[in-house]
Structures are given as C-alpha cells and as structure tokens.
Amino acid sequence: MKRRQFIQASAMGAGSAALLPFLKYLPAHAARADTLVVAIANSINSMDIHRTGTNRPSYQIAVNLYDRLLSFGTKTMPDGSLSYDYETLVPELAESWTVADDNSHIDFVLRADATFWDGTPVTAEDVKWSFDRAVTVGGFPTVQMAAGNLESPEQFEVIDEKTFRIYTPNPSKLTLPDLAVPVPIVINSTVAKEHATEDDPWATEYLHENPAGSGAYKLEAWRPGEMTVYTRNDDWKGGPLPAMQRVIIREVPSASTRRALLERGDIDINVDVKAKDALELQEAGAVKVVGTPIENSMSALGLNVAMAPFDNKLVRQAIAHAMPYQEIFTTAAFSRGLPMWGGESAEPSDIAWPQPYPYYTDYDRAKALLAEAGYPDGFESTLSINLGLADWQEPAALLIQESLAKVGIRVQIDKIPGANWRTRALVEKSLPMHMKNFGGWLNYPDYYFFWVYQDGHLFNSMNYRNEELEELVNNTLHIPVNDPDYEPNIKRMLAIAFDEAPLIPFYQPFLDVAMQPNVEGYEYWFHRQLDARSIEKT
Amino acid sequence: MDKLKLLARRLLQALPSLAAIVIITFLLTRLLPGDPAAYFAGDAADAESIAQVRAELGLDRPLVVQFFVYLGDLLRGDLGTSLNTGRPVLAEIANRLPASLELTGVALLLALGVAVPLGVLAALYQDRWVDHLCRVVVTAGVSLPTFFTGLLLIYIFYYILGWAPSPLGRLDFLYIPPATVTGFYTVDALLAGDLEIAWAAFTQLLLPAITLGLFVLAPIARMTRAAMLAALSSDYIRTARAYGLHRATVLITYAFRNALLPVLTTLGMVFSFMLGANVLVERVFSWPGIGSFAVEALVASDYAAVQGFVLVMAILFVVLNLMIDLVYTLIDPRIRVEG
C-alpha cells in the first residue's frame, strides 16, 4: 500500500470511527478530485492588492477572492489552449452596464442576488467605497486606476442600492477594460469600516491579513512563506460555480523542486516554469505544458539615448543589426516565445502587436552604419542585466557581448540585483545599455508606447523622446479602436519605433505553465496569475 | 550565585557590541543603493507615487530623525514592520527562527554523530583506510555546494526512489502543525503526544539536515582529528600509557576530553555559520526559515526586516558564545570563566 493510499484510507475510515483525524489532516492532496494543489515560486505577501508593497503573486488573491464589476471573456488560441479575451467584456458583479449617449458617464446595474461572504448584499455603496479607496490610497492601485482615466472619488456615484455610476469627463477606450483588471475589486465596506481607524481610514491593516469580499473563493489559511489555502464560496454569483472545492497554493522557491513535485504527481499545476524546464517537460510528454505568448510584452535591449554614442540613431541601428537574434532565442529563451526580429518592411503593414521589428543579424551592415556614424573602430560601453531575471538575461548578455565584439563594440556586463534595478534602470534611468521586459496589462499597442516610449514614464528607461510620437500617443491612447485615426496612428508609431530603434526587441516571451494531464480549463490571463475558478480535474 | 553574576556580567559586556551592530546595520541598510520607495511603489509607478510611498515610509525625513525613531521603537521592543510581508518583524522572526534552529540543530547533531567518531578513528589509525575515508568524506562534503547536494538527495530519495516525503517545507500538507510550544515541530508534536506528526516532521527534516550536515562535516572532522592527534602525542598520554592505564581510559578520559575543547570552539563557529548559510538549503527544500526571509528582505531593501534580522542574529551569537564558554568550564575544570 502506498503512503498516499494509506492516508486516504485512514482518513476515510476515520469519518465513522473518530473525529480526531479530521483535525489532524487537511483533506488535501493532488490525488483528490476536488482539490487543486498549485506550486508558485514567490511568496504571497498580502491579501490586499491596494496595499503599498503588495507583490505580484498576491494579485491572485484579488483575482480569486474578490469580484470586480466586469471580467473578460475566454477565447481559444491557435494551439487549442485557452486565453482570456480582451475584446469581450463579461459581467462579474455588474449584470449589465450602459454607456451614456454623450459618453459622459457609465451606469452599472449590480446583480440582485450577489452577496459578500458574510451574507450581506453587495451594494453600490460598497463599490463606491472600494473605488474611492483605489484612487485615494496612492501607489500602484491609484496609477492603475488612472490608466483608465479613473482619478477621483467625485467620478463615482451611488444612484441607488444596486445602481452605480462612473462619470467619464475624459472618455477612454481604456476605462471599461481597466475595470476588469485585478485592481478595482469590490470590498465589503461594512466590515472594512468597522476596522478603519483615524490613522487608517481605508482599513489597510485589517484587509492586509483579512480579506472581505464576495469572490468565488474564501480564505481558509494563509501562512506567508509556506502556503495559502482557499475554499469555494458556494453562494458565489459572479459566474459559474468553480469545480475545485479547495485550492492549496504552496510556495516552492526552487525551480528544480517545483519540477520534481509535478513529475512525481504531488502537485497538480506549476505556474512558474522556467523556459528550459518547459522545453524539456514538453519533449518528455508526461505532463501538459501550456505556453502562451505574453500579450503586450517583449524581451528587448534598451539603449539610453541620453548617453553618447546612443544618442546617434545610426549607432542604435548598427547595434540592432549586430544582435545574435537566433542564438538569443534558442539559447537564452529555449525557443519559448515568438521571434520579434526579421520584420519584412520598415513600414508596418498591419497593427498586429507585438510584431517583428525590421532588423536581422548583419555584421557588415552594422559595421557600415557604425562607420557612417563616426565610430569605425567601435566604442566601449556597459551592458546591465537584472539579476532577478538572470535566467534569460545572463546568457543573452553573454551572446550580445560576443556579437558586439565582432563590430568593435566592447561591452562589460554589469549585474544588478532586484530593488537596485528599479532605482537605476527605471527611476534614475542611468543605464547605457540594458535588458528590458515590460509587459502591459491593457492590450493595446498605444498603451505599450505610453509606458515605454513616452518621455518621463517609468518604463522608458531609454530616456527616449520624439515630439511626433508624444503627440501620436496622446491622441491615440483614449480613442476607440474603431476610430478612423486609430490604425494610421498606430502604424506611424510603429514606423517611428522601427526607424529610431531606442528599443531592440528579441522575442515575445511565453508564460509557461505545466500541469497534470487531468487538469483542464487552465486559462492564460494578462496578469499572469492562476485563475483557479476555471480549473477542472477529469 | 557566582554563575549568575558571571552571566549578568557577560551579558552587560555584550551591550556595546549590540549597540555598535544597531548603528552599523542602520547605516549599512541606508547605504545600500536600492531605493525601497521605488521598489514598493509597484509595477507602474510614476515619480509622484514614488514620492508618496517615500513619505508614507518616513524615508523623506533626515537620517538622524529616522535613526532616533528606530531607536525609540527598539527600546520599546518594536523591531518595526516588514514592508515586504506587512507584518511585525518580530512576529516574522519568531515564526521563522524556530524552523531554522530546528533544521540547523538536527543537521549539527547528524554532523557531530558522524564527524567526531570519524575524526577520532582517523587520528587513531593514521594513514590507514579510516583516515583515507575521513579525507574523502571531508573533501566531498566541503567541495559539493549545498544546493547541489540538496538537489541530488531530492533526485535520488524523492524523485527516483520515492522514499523521502515531498520537499515541501516542515510538514507534508496533509498534516496540521502541532500547537506551538517550542516552535520545533518534532518537539511540539511529541509534547502533544502525537507520534505520527512527530515522525512526519522528522522525515521532512532528514534530507535538508543531511544536506546541511554534509557541508559542516569537514571542519568538525578535521578539527577532531587534529586535536586528537595532538592529544595522543602529548606527554600526559605517554605517561598514562606508561602507567599501564586501560586503553579506553587513556583514549576517552585523557585524550578525547582534552581534544574536545578545540572541537567545541569550532562548533560555535560552525553553528553560527550554518544559520547564516542555510538559505540555499531552505530554498531547495521550500523551508520557511530565517535565511530566505533575510534574503528576500535584502533584495527588496526592506530596512526594518534586514535590521531586525541582523540584530536577532547578533543576540543569538552572543548567547551562543556564552553557552560555549560555560560548557568549557564543565569539560575542563581548570578553565574559570572570568569576566
């Protein structure tokens, strides 16, 4: 008898015999049909996505434990896997919504039967309190709300108990999708207010450890550094009832350990798979690997145009021609992505995004461009990488170092750890050549350009500024995609980015997830966290 | 009475070093190039939200003010709140330190159990096969990096053979941890009279403890061998032998007891070293220990957490050294611990 069978048998026998074992065992194992065991790499550090310092893995709490007004639909990808569909908005807490004819406001009607976990109905009052909180607490939630032009509590109004209105003085195509990202959660304001204090009017201390929502799952246990456990909220009204009764999320920092656990069948799904493991697991075929290109994201090289010689466009183009694209793709990314080089024309033929930039490895061309720019013998520089992402950036940097040497550019590799990276690359913008991997939540090319190519924005670590592009982004960001200006504007942005080359993309990375063959319904989400609500085990 | 006085005096002597540690860690964390405000402002921050976070964290105030605020909190026994986990640093450490101590303790016991007999035998049978075996084990233990040994053990005993439980921290998730008394799961489970959980916790401990133990076998075995060799070639052993004392008496009462002193000194160092160095083992075995907490805090420039960690470690070392000094007096009555 195997250990697992033994334990199951003893747990079953215990039901009739004694109650004690029920306290001793969590009825939780990958072998059980109604329990999902998940391995993640990093610690979940908060239950509250609005808190300062809440990290990325904690966003799955917002996704699974809370509801938003809206959510996105589902689509099937070319390879048969599932992905959220950013073109379709579906109801979550709002059963319907109407945009006013003059675009001045949007009205949401809440589901009549939706309740919080404590049984109290979800009201427009709760929605307003939660949205007020998101636009007021500052930091990430406030910035994310602002991306959809949701900036002040005055925009939110309670019409009646079940009707909520958002005023949109600056209408934008980003407003509605921004309500479906993890940030604008609806919190049980009655519970939260009970724990609010004068110093802490938004109950951040309480909600940090005690979620209060209406979501599909409730928190059963949270032990930071070890595990988080959800149980299903059987009264959930925000969508079809999830198949999984209990979800156990284990924090397993070592990639090799996560892989071994999956292959041994002790976990159902590993959501942080290294590119190398994904490739090998797929070849071995014993577990299912799903790789989805991460929307609106590219692994790239940034050139700081505020520093000579990268202020010279010819130098930037030369570097773009001296990149060992294929080697980077196969060696550093293990081919887990889509190539973003070798585009056919300097004029984009469509507005697909991301799309390959018109550069390819051509050392002679690179040398000619360098000579034309006045650097026939090359120059010296520093190439910085983020140690937190060393698994692709380090091999890529070594390959780049070798390639650039062929055209006379001698670079030193500089490795920078986590917190430091943000400061030096993004805030001070002081790195001459550096690796980049920004990914935007709202899937529009103009949204990417806003963050990466517009002057002064955090992810424009290249210090890039182009007057025409500034205006194009400002004019395009909020107009609907069916506006006659939209497509020509996007094409022009792409043409500028191609020609000016402050950013040299290599590939669009995959989000790799590996799971047992009996796990169905896994769906890719732009927030890259596991939405357990759609998972089933067959 | 004397012992108590002595204890108090030794603890008083530790105060200046602790004060120095408080100042140095405060300054060092601030000197680190990372900016916690930029880090914690999150994924899509702008200059305004970073400034907002900085003000919220009190990092916009002059360094001197920050220091005195920190000192004031410290005197009230408040180590501050970790930005990363959003919980009091003291609670985090209280939660994670037992996990590390339990692992390190078991690893040290395992290492001692192997290294001391091996060292003694190697000294007794110098240049014979035991000595060579000792040399091989020691070299292997020191030259294999801990994360490699850890992964290798997981591969063999968990992945291939299936003997070891899943490397998922302190307890398989089938079990609920025992009520906290000492914080050591094995001890707590035994106190609660639950043999099954004690066994489960112990089996979880085995692989990481062996990994860590292998790494520190070397210094202990080498030191035991050297100390034993020195003792065996000394005059008093020759005398004892000449008197025709029983071989066991000569070896254990005279040689081994004298050889223990340097071994004990090494042990103190090894233990401190292990506590700091087990972060790699913690990662491989998903062990929720203090090392991974400290590294995460360091990467995020989480000042309060880093300062709290260093301070607690410093206190631990002071206590550890004091304990070792006290044990000296038990082994060698000639040694009197003077203030």
Which labels suit this protein?
heterodimer, A: 538 residues, alpha+beta, twelve-stranded mixed β-sheet, 21 strands, 32% helix, disordered N terminus, B: 339 residues, mainly alpha, 14 helices, globular
Topology (elements, then pairings):
The complex is a heterodimer of chains A (538) and B (339).
Chain A: H1 3-17, H2 20-24, E1 35-40, H3 59-65, E2 70-76, E3 82-91, E4 94-99, E5 105-110, H4 124-136, H5 140-147, E6 156-160, E7 163-167, H6 175-178, H7 189-194, H8 204-209, E8 217-223, E9 227-232, E10 246-251, H9 255-263, E11 269-270, H10 275-284, E12 288-293, E13 299-303, H11 313-321, H12 325-332, E14 337-339, H13 363-373, E15 380-386, H14 390-406, E16 410-416, H15 418-427, E17 433-436, H16 445-452, H17 467-476, H18 486-500, E18 503-515, E19 519-520, E20 523-524, E21 536-537
Parallel strand pairs in A: 1-10, 1-11, 3-20, 15-16, 15-17
Antiparallel strand pairs in A: 2-3, 4-5, 5-7, 6-7, 8-9, 9-10, 11-18, 12-18, 13-17, 13-18, 14-18, 19-21
Helix pairs in contact in A: 11-13, 12-14, 16-17, 17-18
Chain B: H1 2-31, H2 36-40, H3 47-56, H4 63-75, H5 89-124, H6 129-143, H7 146-160, H8 185-191, H9 195-232, H10 235-242, H11 247-277, H12 279-284, H13 290-299, H14 303-331
